[in-house]
Amino acid sequence: MFLFGIRRLLTALVALWGMATVVFLLLRVLPGDPAETLLAGSGASPEAIALTRQQMGLDDPLPVQYGRYLLSTARGDLGRSLFSNRPVTLAIAEQLPATLHLAMAAWLVMAVVGIGLGILAALRAGSWVDRLTMGGAVLGVSVPIFWSGLLLISIFSVGLNWLPATGAGSWRHLVMPAIVLGLVGAGPLARLVRSSLLDVLHADYITVARGKGLPSRIIITRHAVRNAMIPAINLMGLQAGFLLAGTVVTETVFARPGLGRVMVDAILWKDLPVVQGVVLLIAATYIAINLLVDLTIMVIDPRSRQT
Amino acid sequence: MTQSFPNHPPAQQLPGAATELLAPARLQPPSWMPQHRALRQNPAAWVGASILVLVVALSLAAPWLAGVDPLATAPAAQLMPPSLSHPAGTDLLGRDVWSRLLWGGRLSLGAGLFATTLAVLPGTLLGLVAGYAGGRLDMILMRVVDVLLAFPSLLLALTIVALLGPGLVSATLAVGLAGIPRFARVVRGGVLAVRSEPFVEAARVVGCRPQRIVLRHVAPNVLSAIIVLGSLELGYALLSIGALSFLGLGTQPPTPEWGIMLAEGRLLLRHAPWVSAFPGLAITLSVLAVNLLGDALRDALDVRTAG
């Protein structure tokens, strides 16, 4: 078990390195010149641009740049914004809490709604509850966040005036964004929980438990749901990446401060160090979450340790 | 390909008992044919197909049905609610929302279709090559694919847009490119499942060239997986391109496209909800149709898309 954990940790580190490399390669094949972008509009002479290029280390061979990039990234130094000249880590650290609040609240909505409806649909398989839930799941993944968000704003802010339409700061600001983002993830989760619970309910050990005369409630909570949860936990880890990326859109819809706004502005202004920083952070968080998920499954499911 | 063996019957049509042993899979119609009945009897498939046909037909008929130029502004007709002369109302510049909706459909659906093709073709090719060639090539390709899959898909698309600069073309390219690794993974998995089947070995034994084996014997057997995954990818592409346009990173004004129409209607929720409601409905219906069809295909063709 210990060995498995170590091996999984190493895989995560390799994934991190691969991810950092992809980001580096992607952003270095860019046709533009960061030095020119930096000095654009300032009327800088070609000499000044060349000097800046040299200072930014853009004249060095690619492998040298790559090595320097890996070292500084590993130290947590993500460079400076081309526009504000502030360290990227600082810009990210300021906006990170708002985004994390949103992502965590959305994850909670996804987990509660997805697992709850999935279990309900499986226990009432074939009934109208089941059909309604599964229909809702398809609808949930088909509605764009940028429209469902506007719909909620129309109803609960413009119409009923219950919740603030935009901004951040209190839990009231978090309700609509978390629901909008979380419900998209809840659809696939509900489907998976339903199908894996249905599989489990037909397993031999459930028949044995019934044969022993155990009450249904105990069979479902102790035996069936526990085993059906393993694929669900896996999916919830994978969905975390989707939720993190989805915050970009959600934050724009609700005009919330956060990494999403930072990212979109950076793309519009071609502020590549900031784009790179946000992408690295989100992707690294995603890898870390899935490492946690695998380790959790390892603890609760002895079978997974053998592979 | 066929001309290279003019007098040589394809392996799967060799007469005699040996054929039964060697080529059971190809004696029957391709694996995606016989389940047509299951598809025809699925009401969700019918609903999906009908909506899709309707949306596509309306968009194609834009020149005849739109009536007004989608770009023509009319200061006197700002923010008019839906009426006989403007079935979907007008926007802030007095442009006819109905006309923009129809013309926008061409761009939105076209871009989605193009992005999907961009993901399917190279992804399938990579998957076929990696799966059939095996060995070191397979290992290298799949390592790269795994690293790319470690990025949430929307994040990868955002990074590519950062590289290419905002615009509908780059948003489409970004969403398409970001989908390639998914197809490469799934197709490779399918190839691995059939590459050691007797009918593939038989084709190899009778001297078929690798290209012919891959295209004629292996590819048809992963076709159903590609069809299912491709239809779900189309829904995803429509949502992602819409999201990028909504963020201001895709279509630029004044071009009509559903995502940017929603963005333009975002600030008019209180006074002119129709400006955002109709494009939102259009995206949702299109994606819902594609997803219903994709789910029905998955059930009919018995394809597992997870994993």
What's this model, at a glance?
Chain A is an all-alpha fold and 307 residues long. In chain A, 78% of the residues lie in helices and 0% in strands.
Summarize the structure in words.
- The complex is a heterodimer of chains A (307) and B (307).
- Chain A has 307 residues and is an all-alpha fold.
- Helix content of chain A is 78%, strand content 0%.
- Chain A folds into two domains: 73 residues, no CATH class; 210 residues, MetI-like fold (Orthogonal Bundle), CATH 1.10.3720.
- Chain A has twelve helices and no strands.
- In chain A, helix 9 crosses helix 10.
- The radius of gyration of chain A is 24 Å and the shape is flat.
- The mean pLDDT of chain A is 84.
- In chain B, 69% of the residues lie in helices and 0% in strands.
- Chain B has 13 helices and no strands.
- Chain B has one domain: MetI-like (MetI-like fold), CATH 1.10.3720.
- The chains are: A mainly alpha (307), B mainly alpha (307).
List the helices and strands and how they pair.
The complex is a heterodimer of chains A (307) and B (307).
Chain A: H1 2-28, H2 34-39, H3 46-55, H4 62-74, H5 88-123, H6 128-142, H7 145-159, H8 171-201, H9 204-211, H10 216-253, H11 259-268, H12 272-300
Helix pairs in contact in A: 1-4, 1-12, 5-6, 5-8, 5-10, 5-12, 6-8, 7-8, 7-10, 8-10, 9-10, 10-11, 10-12, 11-12
Chain B: H1 17-22, H2 24-27, H3 36-40, H4 43-60, H5 62-65, H6 97-133, H7 135-149, H8 153-164, H9 168-195, H10 198-205, H11 210-246, H12 258-266, H13 274-301
